[in-house]
Predict the 3D structure of the following.
Amino acid sequence: MSSSLAPRGSIVPGRLFEDDAGRPVQLHGAGIRRIGDRYYAWGEDKSHGGTFGGVACYSSPDLATWTSHGHALAVTPDVPDLAPGRVVERPKVLPAPDGTYVMFLHIDSADYADARLGWAVADRPEGPYTYLRSERPLGNISRDIGVFLDDDGTGYLLSEDREHGLHVYRLSVDLLTVEEVVSTTLAPPSDHPAGPHGYESPAMIKVDGLYYLFGSDLTGWSTNDNKYATAPSPAGPWSAWNDVAPPGTATFDSQVSDVVTVPGTEQTAYVYVGDRWDRHDLFRSPPVVLPLQVAGGRADLVWRDSWTIDTTTGVIS
Ligand code: GAL
């Protein structure tokens, strides 16, 4: 079901944000991170439905009031990976040590057979990004992706490969090369009657030295009970998978896309960002943005009808 827009300045899970020009914010499959004193977000512009409509970029001081920066990466007919009719999903950006920004993308054909990872780079978070190339990381198929930057500066790529599982790959220092698989996880047998596979739409955070890996089962645009596992290192060993939200709610009818760390003066808050896909109206598919309580090896999504976060203090109200 399509949704109306949330009042500007508040977060209403299941309602689209409105940008500074009154348009529905296109943060589908979003990646969000703090850069300076603002939160930058990159998402799929679904104005062309399921095929590439550009990577939209927005920024916000409070994860609720979004200013559009237009397309960070536009449809480009003479670049085969970015041409009309292609699939370009789940843009995720990391800052590189040389001060540039590296965008990772799921690059695919309309039938999802290509299953590749793409890179683009820019001098500013909002771009414009220059497209570099795509590949199958270390020869593996790669569809949904996430990224994680550790405190020591090591970058990781999280990538769904249904032939082997969900991989955590270590990236090179400049983030432009996939160096090695550090761990691969599978969904438990109860979740894969059709054969072993890992979870998709991956995201990772680190809290008090413990790594939390989030993912969704492989049900396309339909939502499911998303899971998380924990480990003392990106290399594992990973715990059993647990439900992020009350089981049976299909993660409050959403699919995880990213988890944002908000380091406040009073507390560090964690914000879950998910998609409530409407396969008949992807453009108006709303985000589900909710507080995530993370402590002592547990991560619990908390339902709020409407809420705000003070990104200076980290306090949620
Ligand atoms: C989902 C995936 C989405 C999109 C969709 C297409 O499994 O998480 O990003 O690719 O499939 O059916």
